[in-house]
Amino acid sequence: MERLGKISKVFDAPEAIADIKYRDTTLINAEIERLTRLSAVVKPRATEFFMNAPSPGIVATTMLNAHYASHEAYLDAAASATPPMSAEPTSPKRAARSVKSVGI
């Protein structure tokens, strides 16, 4: 499947012009720490919290590719560059419950 060149679903979207990689996760880590700290007040009533982030597919679909040879290579690079979503690994049982709850 070949993607149409220079077409994006976002007007004036940025484009990848070099390898995709996180330069610094300081802001992400600070946001996770902030949620953890501020949610301590409601922790007895809420056992889990959720932070959203764009999936590699959304990134590869909405941002243009001017670097990778194909859309598939671009998607693979976006997936490889995705940082871990939490400090605690998600158990398979919890992940299955999460997927089931959103109807996937």
Notes on the protein architecture:
Helix 2 crosses helix 3. The protein has helices at residues 26-39, 56-62, 71-81, 92-101, and strands spanning 15-16, 64-65. With 104 residues, the chain is mainly alpha-helical. The chain is built from four helices and two strands. The radius of gyration is 17 Å and the shape is elongated. The protein has one domain (15-101). 5% of the residues are buried. Strands 1-2 form a two-stranded parallel ribbon. The longest helix has 14 residues, at 26-39.
Compute the separation of the termini in Å. 24 Å
Strand content: under 5%
Biggest sheet layout: 2 strands, parallel
The number of distinct helices, counting runs of at least 4 residues, comes to: 4
Name the helix and strand elements from N-terminus to C-terminus, one letter apiece: EHHEHH
Number of strands: 2
**What shape does the CA trace take?**
elongated
Structural class, by secondary structure, is mainly alpha
Provide the residue-averaged pLDDT: 75
Helix proportion: 40-55%
Rg calculated over all Cα atoms: 17 Å
- Provide the spatial order of strands within the biggest beta sheet: 1-2
Low-confidence stretches: 86-104
Number of domains: 1
